[in-house]
Amino acid sequence: MSFSSPFPDVDIPEVSVFDLLFSNMNQADLDRVALIDTPGGARTTYGELIGQVNSTAGALAGRGVGVGDVVGLLAPNSTAFAVAFHGTLRAGATVTTINALFTAKDIAKQLTDAKATTMITVCALLQQAQEAAQAVGIPPAHVIVLDGAGEAVSGHPNLEDLIGQGASAPTVDFDPTTHPAVLPYSSGTTADPKGVILTHRNLAANIAQIRPLLAIDSDDKVLAILPFFHIYGMTVLLNAALHARATLLVMPKFDLAEFLDNIQKYQVTYTFIAPPVAVALAKHPLVDHYDVTSLRTVMSGAAPLDAELGNAVSRRLHVQMIQGYGMSELSPVSHCMPADGGKEHFGDIAPLNSCGWPVPNTVNKIVDPVTGNEITYPTEGLSAPGELCVRGPNVMVGYLGNEEATKATIDSDGFLHTGDLAQVDSLGRIFIVDRLKELIKYKGYQVPPAELEALLLTHPSIADTAVIGVPDDEGEEIPKAFIVRQFGTNIAEAEVIEFVARHVAPYKKVRRVEFIDAIPKSASGKILRKDLRTTPS
User: Fold this and answer.
1) Which candidate, 35, 77, 187, 510, has a CA 20 to 30 Å from the CA of 223?
2) Sign of CA dihedral 51, 116, 13, 345
3) What's the rounded Cα separation, in Å, for the pair 324 and 333?
4) What's the fold here for domain 439-533?
């Protein structure tokens, strides 16, 4: 049977993202610091940010960018990214954010699929951006280099050129319920990336859905290490944190020492991470050299967080550790623990191996992937596992130019099929088991890689790990563990196999081990299992 969010419905604003975030500000809000670029400490108030966004929108409009156009944005986190992103939306155009790790070929593929006519980037990524732009026919004058020398010197406008024109923001007319705001591309960890159409209403809805749960306010200082080009960073940091009038401390990339130093220096109260960062916070000796007592809440997302690992971070940093779940197709947050773990709402803190409850205004169902029948909601304990499906105002319009994939993902009742295997308990909390496509089938049994990875991370000699299914000599799929040794240790294959065997059922045992220097992961922290499958043994 389907089940609704236990939280009260919230009003979904029928406005543009710009109007939602930046309209109706009083003078106190305008004077607040919105963004701090941590590498140099440059501060931008909300009033300054709005002015820069409006000027950028006006300059883009003057260059012919508006409703119906798509702008590619390839840049690491910075205030300039925020200005370019919101300036493009303010002009009425659609932003397709591009992974900063992409090659020129990857960039060109996304620009082509999204039909982008303008490219925004930075000097550090200009070579691959230029190559991609040239390949798809974007002229140099339409390649904006935010921190470049400027159009007079290089032929590429920079952000100073755009803002310096002093152009007024254009008057734009579009329906926020249908007009695409962003075109993020699905991660491509299991298939070719697809353009995800998210409207202004999708993004506004998700901000409205998560704000009451996250409880970020204007006194918070939020450390932004998640990439803004990824939907997780885009929604919870670049949008939801700004909507709360918080101060965003912006890091262009993650570095543990800089992360800890920024918490100490700026008295950070709230941060959002992915599980790889949790591993470092739980295990790395560097953590003990910094004062992080200002930190109140840490939220993990983008990939499943093991309860023991999350609790280790909570104990070490003396913070409330919470977890959320989502995907690009859900704008992205569909499940979340409240900032207090659920104590006020439910009288108890949710276990960290769950991702909390469905966000407001959503309905869930869990479906048997074999029969298609809905799993029965349990009166006690956990339900049987099945595919998690979500319906709500945060569900994407569909995949760009791919009606077949859209129909395969969103059913006739409006439920988006996540592709994740999940269980629900009698209190409505969701537990993600693993990706359906990543389950290892060993002699007819299903082995979730995430379960084995969580166990392996509890070993003091293992810094990081990933598990995939590989064929043995007889062609039977077996679990194989890739291991990154903790610095100064020399754990051997036999020790890894024996450690797992002591804790799991026989069919779940790891049967092969390979030691590598680093686990390949996406910018959001998801394990790139397809890369491991091509790793030579």
Assistant:
1) 187
2) negative
3) 7
4) GMP Synthetase; Chain A, domain 3 (3.30.300)
User: What residues form DSSP beta bridges with 326?
Assistant: 333
Shortest CA distance to 452 belongs to which of 465, 442, 462, 471?
Answer: 465
Q: What is the pTM of this model?
A: 0.86
Write out pLDDT tens, residues 295-315: 999 999 887 788 999 999 999
Instruction: Tell me the one-letter amino acid at 326.
Output: G
Pair 338, 356: CB distance under 8 Å: yes
CATH 3.40.50.980 domain span(s) along the chain = 42-174
Residue 393: helix, strand or coil by DSSP?
coil
CA distance linking residue 448 with residue 282, whole number of Å: 23
Q: What's the mean pLDDT in 98-118?
A: 93
H helix or E strand, kind and range, residue 379:
none
Cα-based distances in Å from 288 to 280, 313, 375? 12, 12, 46
Instruction: Yes or no: say if 419 and 268 are a contact pair by the CB < 8 Å rule.
Output: no
Intervals of CATH 3.30.300.30 along the chain: 439-533
68 touches 224 (CB < 8 A): no
| Residue extent(s) of CATH 3.40.50.12780 domains in the chain | 199-436
Q: How far apart are CA 197 and CA 184, in angstroms?
A: 7
Phi, psi of 109 (to 5 degrees): -60, -45
- Topology, domain 42-174: Rossmann fold (3.40.50)
Which residues does residue 398 pair with via DSSP β-bridges, in sequence order? 197
* Backbone φ, ψ for residue 196 (5° rounding): -100, 115
Residue 26 tokens, joined:
């009083």
Strand residues in 425-476 grouped as ranges (E): 430-435, 440-442, 445-447, 462-471
The CATH number of the structural domain formed by 199-436 is 3.40.50.12780
